[in-house]
Amino acid sequence: MKTGDTPNPSHAQGVSRRKFLAAGGAAAAAFTIVPRYVLGGAGFVAPSEKITVAHIGCGSEGLREMPEMLRLPEVQIVAVCDPVKESHDYVDWSKDGLRASVAEALGKPDWRRGAPGIPGGRDVAKEVIEMFYASQRRSEKFGGCAAYADFRELLEKEKDVNAVKIMTPDHLHATIAIAAMNKGKHVMLHKPIANRLREARLVIETARKTKVATHFLPASDGANIQRIKAWVDAGAIGTLREIHNWSNRPVWPQYATIPTDTPPVPAGFDWSLWLGPSLDRPYHPHYTHAVFRGWYEFGGGALADMGHYSLWPVFRLFDLDAPVMVESRASHLCKLADNVAVRIKNDYSFPAACTIRFKFAAKGGRPALDLFWYDGSMRPPTPAELEADNKELSPEGMMFVGDKGKILAGFRGDDARIIPEKAMREYQAAEKLSGAARQAQAGQARREAGALWVAACKGGQPTYGDFLQAGPISDAFNLGAVSLRLGGKRLLFDAAAGKVTNVAEANKCLGREYRAGWELTEVG
Hints:
This protein is an alpha/beta fold and about 525 residues long. The chain is built from 17 helices and 17 strands.
């Protein structure tokens, strides 16, 4: 394993970082009777009371979300980790948007202006953190952030780190989260929990056994879905039968063929560490940065990327367990071979567009329910109720279908209304909107997710994104990927056994073939 790029001054002196950070405040207190919080000003949090965080994953999304955590007064980011040292070849949704957003957060509009591309890597993250904290402390220099290429070295050396935020490609999520939790670290994790069903279950079981505070970043409290659920409970559309959710993703390339050229690994990029648990293969930029999510090995496709945002509260509020059946339909591509058109056999990358059907068993007073996912600009047929209003479905949205009506909403349940418009007016006029529905419609003040997680790290209540809530949605999404990978096969799933019962080969796809030394094992 490689040595961290920046020596840790606290370790050099043989004391913990927590004591090191507290030293300045302790020295000041020795010469005055004024309370330290007064010296610190409004919002001051003593160094000894801060949650120390290691930020693992410093690509475009990692940098984009970093300022939000830097602003939390109870958090101190003390270490960063990424296999990339520094680069400007990252992939994003605009040429200068990421740089400009970080520059604004730093209060330095010219930060890296004129750089040759989109920035990323551990040295860039370290620079951002130190500049932000130095400005916050009105000091010219701040050297309290260490940088590592290997998360295993970070976890071994940074013993006084309380928590980690994981912003890596999907295939590393389980490996890093489990390692951190087994070290007693609290964990905040981007989507998905893991891109393999068995790995996701192991992450959740590790969280259960270690009892650390966890938060799943795309989770929400579901205020929009609460409103819809209240309408359903009040009988606005009769018995709920189907839920439809559609996205315009992917908005990145999902390559139809495996690259055959072998460009050199960029300077400062540890390709072996980026692969992590995945089997060796030659480096290629088509695998890395934002395009990793298009590969079954490294990503979770459009469903994992966006479906967690929209469907997390649906799973929770409608009390959905793991699906009992999953089936899919996917687009395909063809090529010419000796002037003969042949279909490209593809079990390595997600399709450009697909639909997936998840069937859920009846539970309590709720009958069996089907959930439909669409991506690649696919969407359901326009319902007759919308045709009556001379309108069409939006590019992204959500629809709840009952045996007596339909509710149409935005992608995450916003702007919900009963369709057609006449039915909505009649329903409201009849005052059938229950008190519970009105309360849900008004919504509740939502606390910042980071603040909720910090409170949980300090012994407070679990957040609405606690990993223990992630089992059913993780099972569903990973089964959807397996169905696609196997050409759309219908899979019958026994959740208690964690097995597909009708397609033996599908069970091989529930786990991963690991590189030697990277295997994940059951929690002891």
